[in-house]
Amino acid sequence: MPIQGETIVAIATAILPQQGSVGIVRLSGTKSLAIAKSLFYSPGKQEWSSHRILYGYIRDPETKQTIDEALLMLMLQPRSFTREDVVEFHCHGGIIAVQEVLQLCVAQGARLAQPGEFSLRAFLNGRIDLTQAESIAELVSAQSKQASQIALAGLQGKLGSPIRDLRTTCLDILAEVEARIDFADDLPPLNEAQIEQQLEDVLDRVNQILATAEQGELLRNGLKVAIVGCPNVGKSSLLNAWSKSDRAIVTDLPGTTRDVIESTLVVAGIPIQVLDTAGIRETVDTVERIGVERSRRAAQDADLVLLTVDASQGWTDEDLEIYQQVKHRPLILVINKADLASPKSLNYPQEIESTVHTSAAHHQGITALETAIISLAHQGKVMAANSEVAVNQRQASALTRARVALKQVQETVTNQLPLDFWTIDLRGAIQALGEITGEEVTESVLDRIFSRFCIGK
């Protein structure tokens, strides 16, 4: 855990050569204002007060050399993100100027920030709870508009607030029970029916929030989808039609695709990484054989396989051989070139439940394919597509432990066990719910969470 009293500094924007018009260097801590005054010259009578932007020049205090023409933003405690004095130098973009400013700040007594340390200080100083901190990282890494909206809702406290309410209810129940243990002769009997109803209400709400975990996993991590099949069945054409691009080379020659080609799409708010693989067949060509082996690996690693066949050729022995290799994976049979289909029936195995007819060359069937993918992704799972929030894996784990503890309390009450037994699992539920918002959390958990942040956050 980093020392909180130190003044930290980091570059808060992506810095690439010849890209980005502005580069920001951010300071937080007790020395921030003093460091800013030692480096920044503001002409005229500009007022150095909180929440003002000053214009001027950044100068090396030793050599008096001007480093950059810049803006200085002042946000003094407690009205800042970290609830410490925060200063930002808004420099010209690029590499040189911002790196020089960063080094000058270090020379004046600041320490380079660790990943996520600004957000960690905001959490430790009570500016945000742990769900909001995690939402910041999720907002930065969001791959779709829906994922961005979910993260923004978390940042606004729409996950942390109900979790705190549930924890407060559990604390109130615990207080009632412990009061009866300590002062049984001075208080009226415990209203068990009311407590049972409160426990049922808390458990129902926990289940509702926990049901968003699967949706959250899809929105944050997306799906990896592999298009596999024999050569020349239209896999590359399917990728091009789906992605509305010419990512893959399309010819009538079998074996054109020699490697796995990737394209990233967003379908119904879910990021999808599409892998166009080399046609799977036996070959003596060394390069093509390597491509075929990579295709097999891609199919094994994918969350979903699109087994693509040529409708005009019917179901072949080669299709069956490939199917045998991938049938243990979630699978959709894509019957491509449907516009060229021969009169003979396509005798594919009847255990294949999901099929889609497409004509990639004519951009037909793509919507049906997307619908089938989303349906299969959600099949048999409780979804919460209309929910404002979606919990992540860490939060889901804590909610699961809270649910188990609450069910144990219910069993304890039903079995008329002594009140001391009620308190054990109540404390377990309170502990688990507190871990979500950060009211009950260990230093190692904090280190693990914030180490995944970028350095300037």
Describe the structure.
The chain is an alpha/beta fold and 457 residues long. It has 15 helices and 13 strands. The protein has helices at 32-39, 96-107, 117-124, 130-141, 145-155, 160-182, 192-210, 213-221, 235-243, 286-301, 317-326, 366-378, 393-414, 419-437, 443-450, and strands spanning 8-11, 22-28, 40-41, 52-59, 66-75, 86-92, 111-112, 223-229, 261-267, 270-276, 304-310, 331-336, 355-357. The protein has a 7-stranded mixed beta sheet. A 6-stranded mixed beta sheet has the order 9-10-8-11-12-13, with helices on both faces. The radius of gyration is 29 Å and the shape is flat. The two termini are 16 Å apart.
Question: What's the short version?
Answer:
This protein is of the alpha/beta class.
How is this fold's topology laid out?
Blueprint: E1 8-11, E2 22-28, H1 32-39, E3 40-41, E4 52-59, E5 66-75, E6 86-92, H2 96-107, E7 111-112, H3 117-124, H4 130-141, H5 145-155, H6 160-182, H7 192-210, H8 213-221, E8 223-229, H9 235-243, E9 261-267, E10 270-276, H10 286-301, E11 304-310, H11 317-326, E12 331-336, E13 355-357, H12 366-378, H13 393-414, H14 419-437, H15 443-450
Parallel strand pairs: 1-7, 8-10, 8-11, 11-12, 12-13
Antiparallel strand pairs: 1-2, 2-6, 3-4, 4-5, 5-6, 9-10
